[in-house]
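Entry — protein

Goal — fold tokens:
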Amino acid sequence: MTQSISSPGYTSAQTISVLTGASVLLTMSMGMRQSFGLFVSPVTQDLGISVADFTLAIAIQNFTWGLSQPLIGAVADRFGCRVMTILGSLLYAGGLGVTMVAQGPIALWIGLGVMVGLALACTGLSLALAAAARAVSPIKRSVTLGTISAAGSIGTFIAAPLAQGLIDSNGWLVAMVGFLGLCVVMIPAAFFTGAGDKAGLDQATNANDSDAGMSLKEVLIEAWQHKGYVTMAVAYFVCGLQLIFIATHLPAYLEICGQSPILGAQALGVIGGFNAIGCYILGWLGGKYPKHYLLGGVYLLRSGFIVVYFLLPATPTTTLVFAAVMGLLWLGVAPLVTGLVGQIFGLRNMATLTGVAFFCHQTGSFVGAWGAGLLFDAMQNYDLAWQIGVAIGVTAGLAQMCMNDKPTDRMQGAVPA
């Protein structure tokens, strides 16, 4: 890494620290989050609760994450990321601990739901990508965001096999202990993610930054008045719905189809491995082509491959091919959305505005996790759930391609993000 990729005001050491810390933080945090679907069967059987009870915890987790993200992003924009990312790492461990002592659904909703949801708002994509975006120069920003996002998918490649192996050999409680070990790794990573906090705040308040001094109300009003941003945020709802449906319900679907539980873990691991490739590719493409076209294309392609997979018999081959394709189209939307926010509004309030968009994403995750669980309990299959996901996915993809991606009047003449 050389000085040339560093943003003005950042030293090479600060840039390296931020990018390394953000990568490791996402590896652990997102890896665990995307592996919780492996716990559906063992936890529901052990605690004697329904699938909908467990998936409601995942839904609460995602909704809490989304609801708190704008506020946590606003705090990080003004005071730096370090305090929030460290606090989130500790809260993540606390949420897993409460989950381990659960005797029924209420403790599960508090621990795996509310506490882990708040933790993800501090340790997930929004803060990590905002910190990374400020640390690198505009010309390297899109590909760097793609690379950092890839770290979150590598985490699935680590966490899913770890969890399934421990569940098979020692039960789900020991698997949770393994996840607590990953939380320990997150703490120093969270510290390094905030290495550029002072430089980022100084950069954001210099004379050339046209949004310095804007109040939170003014930031939100400006965002609401930009119809392209509103379109992007609404389309992001569908992204959350599709991804959490697959991550949470694919293992259970495979068991219904008579496949081994190991296949579910393998599929999540393949998603993680190919997601690393997809994030980098989409980040690189985002630096060369209009980001809103790429986002729309991702939503349309996902929907098409979901149709093909669920119409075919679920076999190890079709499942792993599906997982590979979905992995290529997984978290790569995050650097594109983050890049669009920077392009339209600038860097000063990036964590706030990506947080608002992410609230829409997590509302979709809430619907995808719990809604699909309710449909399954009522119908004993996932047919209607995936059909709804495909229908709104196509609609979102077309709308996303038509969005206005021009910078605000305030940003005219600024360096494009």
